[in-house]
Amino acid sequence: MPQSAESSILLREAGLRPTSARRRVLSSLQTAGRSLSHRELVDLLRGLDRVTIFRSLKNLKKARLVHSVQGIDRTLRYFINPAEKRGCPGGHPHFLCLACGGMSCLSDQQIAIVRVPRGAEVRGKQLLVYGVCPSCASSKRARPAPRTNRGETK
Known about the structure:
The chain has about 150 residues and is α+β, with helices and mostly antiparallel strands. It has a single domain (about 5-140), classed as Arc Repressor Mutant, subunit A (Orthogonal Bundle), CATH 1.10.10. It has helices at about 5-15, 20-30, 40-45, 50-60, 135-140; strands at about 35, 65-70, 75-80, 95, 105, 130. The strands form 2 sheets. The chain has a 3-stranded antiparallel beta sheet with strand order 1-3-2. Strands 5-4-6 form a 3-stranded mixed beta sheet, with no helix packed on it. α2 crosses α4.
């Protein structure tokens, strides 16, 4: 089945209208096979403005078709949720490579249960493990200097 048709079906099943923008964003995440930032999607999806892409990501996230993780660089990266995880987006740790910036789901593991104060409403949780991925470690890429919150190097 072509990617666009598959995206349309997923969007309808999630109760979303399969607009061209939503189909293109969802298809791009499916095709990439890795996380993509908003900036990467803007560069990839010529003809769609950044606000339309942002709104599409927001709707896809609300419909639990994607989840996002904020890296130590404060960049949100978006992941497609596999069908079996649609009821529970995220809920697992992620690994961020400090050399290439790639992020991957560690979906075979779960984040520990955390007890919060009685009456508190949890809006999200994430566990980010960072280091150097096997590919970068084997190629001995230099690790970039850590960045501060303002993007400067230390």
